[in-house]
Amino acid sequence: MQIRREDEQSLLALDMTPLIDMLFILIIFFLATSRFQQEERDEAIQLVNSKSSLPIATASELLVIEIDKDGRKKVHGLERTLEEIEEIIRASVEENKESDIVVRADRRAIVAHLLETTEICHRLGIDDPKVTYAQE
Fold first, then answer.
1. Closest CA to 124 of 94, 81, 79
2. 12-27 burial by CB neighbour count: b if 16+ within 10 A, else e?
3. pLDDT of residue 21
4. 64, 104 Cβ separation under 8 angstroms
5. What is the Cα–Cα distance from 104 to 107, expressed in whole angstroms?
6. Amino acid 54: pLDDT
7. How far is residue 47's CA from residue 128's CA, in Å, rounded to a whole number?
8. Alpha-carbon Rg of the chain, whole angstroms?
9. Position 37 pLDDT exceeds 80
């Protein structure tokens, strides 16, 4: 009786289709559940141009305060008073001591509005609130 031996290549072949399907499912899952770092910014705010090589401030945990040309202050897209901004900053610092405060002030705004906002940060123990600008 002759025993037939199967080809060695057929024994080594693996079906890659389930592995590729699983890979695509994982990619889609992570894309759908991840939080993107870049939040919407008010495009009406014109930042000051700078020739400096310092980058625009970016971090994982940012509290962005936007000051438009009329001095209105916005946090998370909603207009806020100085008292509300102070409470939001205080809550942010209590939640995460490493959180960064970023102030986006329109170049046409009065400097006093920027000073009011950074003064609140200094009073609450944030020594270096970041001010963003546009690079030339």
1. 94
2. eeeeeeeeeeeeeeee
3. 94
4. yes
5. 9
6. 44
7. 19
8. 26
9. no
| pLDDT the model gives residue 22 | 95
Six-digit token string for 115: 């000073």
pLDDT of 57 > 50? The answer is: no
124 vs 63, 92, 112, 129, CA distance in Å? 14, 11, 19, 11
Q: Give the side-chain half-sphere CA count within 13 A for 12.
A: 3
Helix (H, G, I), strand (E, B) or coil at 117: helix
Average pLDDT over residues 28-47: 70
Helix (H) / strand (E) containing 25: helix 17-33
Q: Quick: pLDDT tens for 6-18.
A: 655 555 677 889 9
Residue 43 dihedral angles phi and psi, to the nearest 5°: -75, -15
Domains for the chain: give ranges and CATH numbers: 49-135 (3.30.420.270)
CB 130 within 8 A of CB 102: yes
DSSP 72-107: -EEETTEEE-HHHHHHHHHHHHHH-TT-EEEEEE-T
